[in-house]
Design brief:
globular; 7 helices; mainly alpha; single chain
Length: 161
């Protein structure tokens, strides 16, 4: 995991958290499910990371990290499966395992970014240390939230890749 990422330095935990928060946004998740040529999605993610979390990474670095997180997640799951139940949870093989799983399985992320921020920063938001994505996440109306919950069973007829 400590391989130098494409385009330079290793990602800090805070940078990964920012990426996860942006990735958790349901609009981003839907677009990632549907498109193969997704440069523009990663450009958008990079913009949001900078705007909302002050993290500066280019789209290629975001894409590489996104792929690595998915790969690490799969690896952690199989390592855990191979190790049997005595080996502890799959989370011991990968930091942020639970967060990546929540995103990939659409689990408990009805409010996307906001929900992920709560998970990742719990106490810190309360302390007012984190700049919340005011306006951005808050725009999700009740009806949009309901729609997201309805399709939250992982069945996306639209475009399973």
């Amino acid at each position: 995991n400590d391989v130098a990422e494409e385009g330079g330095r290793h990602w800090t935990d805070d940078e990964v958290r920012a990426l996860l928060c942006v990735w958790a946004d349901w609009r981003i998740r839907e677009r990632l499910k549907c498109t193969l040529r997704n440069k523009s999605i990663f450009q958008e993610m990079a913009r949001q990371m900078q705007r909302n979390f002050g993290v500066v990474r280019n789209w290629k670095q975001c894409r590489t990290k996104y792929k690595n997180l998915k790969y690490d997640y799969k690896t952690a799951r199989s390592a855990h499966a191979a190790g049997g139940s005595t080996a502890g949870g799959p989370g011991k093989y990968m930091k942020f395992f639970d967060e990546v799983e929540a995103i990939l399985l659409d689990r408990g992320l009805e409010n996307g970014t906001t929900e992920m921020q709560k998970r990742l920063y719990d106490g810190e938001i309360a302390a007012g240390r984190i700049k919340t994505t005011a306006g951005h996440a808050a725009q999700t109306t009740a009806s949009e939230t309901e729609v997201v919950i309805e399709i939250d069973d992982g069945m996306h007829p639209v475009c399973n890749t």
